């Protein structure tokens, strides 16, 4: 027990003697401390610094006169009056300040202090905000003044510079910056992102309402990169509001920057945030911990408190060093405010306080100081960059991705460049569209869990995306309309989505219209001029292989057939009974070369062949038969000529049977109803044309009935016919009576259910819609030329920078002929395209005549088979019937048999029997009866 007590006593004695020795070399320093009323941390830290000096005599300082002044407001005269009162009091008390410590922030108070110290030539160290040129009263200091009028930027003045470093590193093109009262950005509005092509807004956070307004404002102007500078509590509030507004995701990037130490907290459901916070140097952490535990340096934020401690301590040490080295003037003169003469400024020479601050070797409590010119002197602390992932309001990870050394132009040092690239906001645009084949088609995803889009416009936006570099999200307009304005000036469809800032791009077959250009911006057209046209049911001409028979009515064909048989029978009768016919008067015509017996078969053949170019052959010999033949020839000539003429006319008329060929034809008839889609641009066109006609009529009527007109003027308006057409007025009335279809499917169904092309329903709509329906349905046709033609273009929000970017991309695609290839792909090479048969084929009416050939050949083959059978089987039976029993017995016994004598087909039975008898006598045999 004794020895330890003795050791402690000796150690205490040595320490006391050492402190007594140091106290003999203490330098007495007077201070004029000028602080901003709102800067409580600076005042609290001053007490810690004075306590540290007092409790450590080895520092060699003793603060004798301390005059503390709190100022604020915008009244420069009152501020100067307060400063002069305290300054004059220090002179009266024989304790003039060796050093003025200025911790005002900015504004009138800070400028008043700078003017006061510069005028009275008081050595001053200031921690005011501002870079070179921002402090107006110290802007034009001479060489001597720059030695003792020193400004060191506080940390909160440097931290915003990390925004510039992040923007440059990530190549960010837009930024929304919010800050609270822990940062001062008045002098940063222009300088922070100066000479950087980044569209940005800097806004102060006053309360919760201001947070909502700023987020809405940023979203309205397409800002997707957010920077929040403030306390952790303010940051949490901002992130919570962003989560409720769905401002997290691939499209957005969040950077939160604070002076506080601690963890990031927010009520975010799913967010990835770049969290930037200060981190003390490794060599200063022990001293900082000692100041915090031993001397009560507990003011927050810690970075700010540590800065002010080093700022005070180093400034006082610099004064002590100057005194110890003998460079502090011994005959310093001070002039009261009342004695000050502006025309005779006080000289202050050889007070090189800046050099002593720069050469200071005292270890810092947080980070080293860099002393250079005013605006370029600061504490070189380090900011730690963490990528924080928040899920369901819980921080699940905090990955250290890099660091930043405080400076006015310091780059970010990252551990993995790819990590920062993946974190940065992806430029994602919301694209609103309308389903329309083949421009925009919705199909099920391959995995069956969602939907995707394809079509002409998808290929177009993909080509543009490759040139510009962005991502996009597509959604369908709630009402699936392109965009029309009602009577109250309210929009619907895709245009409404752009006007209300819910979409960035309107993609589809959107026509460029004057009223739309008043609220949105259009790019250069990407598609040809497209107008309104007519969709009708295609005339269905009945096709038949025997269509050539339909030229004449069935009754006519039956009459012709009856006349043929009647004439043939009549000719046979005349030839049989006429005494001058060949068969009844053979001797008369025995010398004629042509001998033809007109039995019934020959008469049928004669009448048939008479109707052919081959002719009927030899005519009857008798005059009555020839008259019948001549009559038949004349009849046949007339029938053939009539059939030929009717066939040609029938084929021609069937091809030219088109009841409607234009809009005028449609408006002049009453059998076909017609109408556009309800709410479509086509409906707007007809409605407005009808309104214009009505207005013109009212104007003309008012002019005609104007009593103030003279007789000459009235005569000039007197016309017999109404000078303004009412075509569209009548058409619009007819459309309303026909009831406008609400969907394209309904319109197509009404067209398809039409009875014919001359009776039913015709749809008036966008030419691309109609052309696509004709391409996939052979029963439909597009009638007439397009009218009210307008180009297709992509629409963006009014004033959006996307307009110029898309214009350049579309023009480049046009020069590369990419747009023509897209049109070829989705129209001519579309897999849904159907190859329709041509209805107006000229050979269709006579193609069936080839059937006649095959039928005739088939009938001839059948007849040949019948003839062969008849000859083979009937001939033997006839020969057997002509033999008597004796001949049959002789033939069986091997004796001579009579040859079979053919019988002749004559009309006289007597003549047949005489011929047979004569034949038998010639062979030496008698008739059966004689025998």
TrEMBL record:
Main location per the UniProt record: membrane
The residues covered by the Ionotropic glutamate receptor L-glutamate and glycine-binding domain are 438-500
Instruction: Tell me a Gene Ontology molecular-function term this record carries.
Output: ligand-gated monoatomic ion channel activity
Which residues pair up as cystines?
Answer: 84-337, 778-836
Q: Where does L-glutamate bind?
A: 511, 516, 681, 766
Give the record's membrane topology.
Answer: Multi-pass membrane protein
Q: Does the keyword Ion transport apply?
A: yes
Q: Annotated site (Crucial to convey clamshell closure to channel opening), which positions? A: 660
Q: Where in the cell is it found?
A: Cell membrane
Recorded GO cellular component terms are: plasma membrane
- The residues the entry assigns to the signal sequence are 1-23
Concerning Pfam families, the annotation shows:
Lig_chan (PF00060), Lig_chan-Glu_bd (PF10613)
| Matching SUPFAM superfamilies | Periplasmic binding protein-like II, Voltage-gated potassium channels
The entry's keywords: Cell membrane, Disulfide bond, Glycoprotein, Ion channel, Ion transport, Ligand-gated ion channel, Membrane, Receptor, Signal, Transmembrane, Transmembrane helix, Transport
Mark the transmembrane ranges: 555-574, 630-653, 845-870
Query: To which protein family does this belong?
Result: Belongs to the glutamate-gated ion channel (TC 1.A.10.1) family.
- Protein name from the UniProt record: Ionotropic receptor 25a
